[in-house]
Design goal:
This protein is an alpha/beta fold. The chain is built from 18 helices and 18 strands.
Length: about 425
């Protein structure tokens, strides 16, 4: 069951809103509806948010994103359509039931902190529990735990006026965490912060999400922020959702010219990762392989180096052509004991910006390893720059998930060499 499901949402301000909805459904333009004295803010919006997902809604000012968020928690009544939070149809609840749902199942983090200046940091963090009727000792204990999560436990007895902007926003986040709801609604929560503090808050949100697994609907006008935080992103324009997708889906296949122009300044190196450009992992060269056979295969495939493995899928080093040639001249019977270069290991989640220096090396390929250190893929030279330049990935080299990586070589990379000799 989706954590949040919205279907056919309309919000129209002004005169005869229900009639405006009917006209919009029949194909009338927004301009025609406005001439009648109605102002459509959200038009036929629909989406689902899965449990544990960060779902980002983004758009320029006036696109309807904040109005949409306020419809999700009932602060604005829908003109038409339905909102479900878990198994509860929010749009069908009476006022007392709606208040209970807000208190028990969702929390809000605001752009401008919304802290009480006369209350301590601890009491601000405990406020949602106070409204819920939780006793003082319990709510203050939960608030202290939440403040510790955001690194403010030592500031619990201070007043908000003694805090920086970033710290105040952390108090707002702690208040939402202390309420212990499954759903967090964050309305431009980091927009008022300086760039450095804003990035720190993004880092902290991602760290908290990794451990807490909340469902988050996050509103922003910043595309780079959306791309960094969102599992999926909904882009709004003039009240309509024009595209929903993962960051890489939106970057690679923008729905229209508006989205394409919107993406012009995005930092692709922070969105795309090694997992997007890696190719399936080649079989590793066994240390017992004969240097003469290895050298011949390297020449046949024009490979400048080979990956040497430990037999358990882990790379122990890189043998360059010079090293293998020296071993052949010395009459060595295997690769064991040769001076290998250390492999350049990254994870599938490593941003492309962090691969630039490694990809520039001539002798050592960039290898992608899983959580156990086993080889999952390699990053071909040129793939990083191609992705940063917006060049579409060739159909023959789709992104490979770690669990799907096969021990076969890409066309011009490493030969399949095993302890039994050359297989290809």
């Amino acid at each position: 069951m989706p954590a949040v499901h919205a279907e056919g949402l309309f919000k129209v301000f002004g005169r005869r809103p229900a009639d405006a909805v009917r006209r919009l459904q029949d194909g009338a333009s927004v301009a025609d509806v406005r001439e009648s004295g109605a102002t459509p803010a959200v038009i036929d919006a629909g989406f689902s948010v899965e449990p544990g997902e960060i779902f980002v809604v983004m758009g320029l000012s006036g696109s309807g994103k904040s109005t949409l968020l306020r419809m999700l928690n009932g602060l604005l009544e829908t003109t038409a359509g339905t909102v479900r939070v878990g198994d509860a149809e929010l749009t069908a609840l009476d006022a007392p039931a709606l208040r209970r749902l807000r208190q028990e199942r969702m929390s809000m983090v605001f752009q401008h902190f919304a802290l009480f200046p006369h209350r301590s940091v601890l009491d601000n963090a405990a406020y949602a529990l106070e409204v819920r009727g939780v006793d003082r000792a319990t709510r203050r204990a939960k608030a202290r735990e939440a403040l510790a999560l955001v690194g403010l436990d030592q500031w619990a007895d201070q007043k908000p006026g003694q805090l920086s902007g970033g710290m105040k926003q952390r108090v707002g986040l702690a208040r939402a965490l202390a309420a212990d709801t499954d759903l967090l609604l964050m309305d431009e929560a980091f927009s008022a912060l300086d760039p450095l503090i804003r990035r720190e808050m993004q880092d902290q949100l991602l760290e908290l999400q990794a451990s807490l697994g909340k469902t988050i609907v996050f509103i922003t006008h910043d595309l780079n922020e959306a791309m960094r935080l969102g599992d999926r992103i909904a882009i709004m324009r003039d009240g309509r959702i024009v595209q929903i997708g993962t960051p890489d889906q939106i970057l690679e296949t923008p729905a229209d010219d508006y989205v394409r122009q919107f993406l012009a300044d995005v930092d692709r190196g922070r969105v795309f990762t090694a997992g997007h450009v890696m190719v399936p992992a080649p079989a590793l060269v066994a240390p017992t392989a004969a240097p003469a056979q290895v050298l011949q295969t390297m020449r046949d495939t024009r490979a400048g180096s080979v990956l040497v493995g430990d037999g358990d899928g882990r790379v122990v080093g890189v043998a360059t052509e010079d090293v293998v040639r020296t071993a052949v001249a010395a009459g060595a019977s295997s690769l064991a004991g040769l001076p290998l270069l250390p492999a350049v290991d990254v994870r599938a989640t490593t941003p492309l910006n962090d691969l630039l220096a490694a990809a520039a090396q001539d002798e050592v390929p960039v290898t992608v390893v899983d959580d156990d250190g086993r080889l999952a893929g390699v990053v071909p030279r040129g793939a990083v720059l191609a992705a940063l330049g917006g060049v579409p990935r060739p159909a023959a080299q789709p992104p490979v998930a770690l669990a799907e990586a096969e021990a076969v070589p890409p066309a011009d990379e490493t030969a399949l060499i095993t302890s039994g000799g050359i297989r290809g």
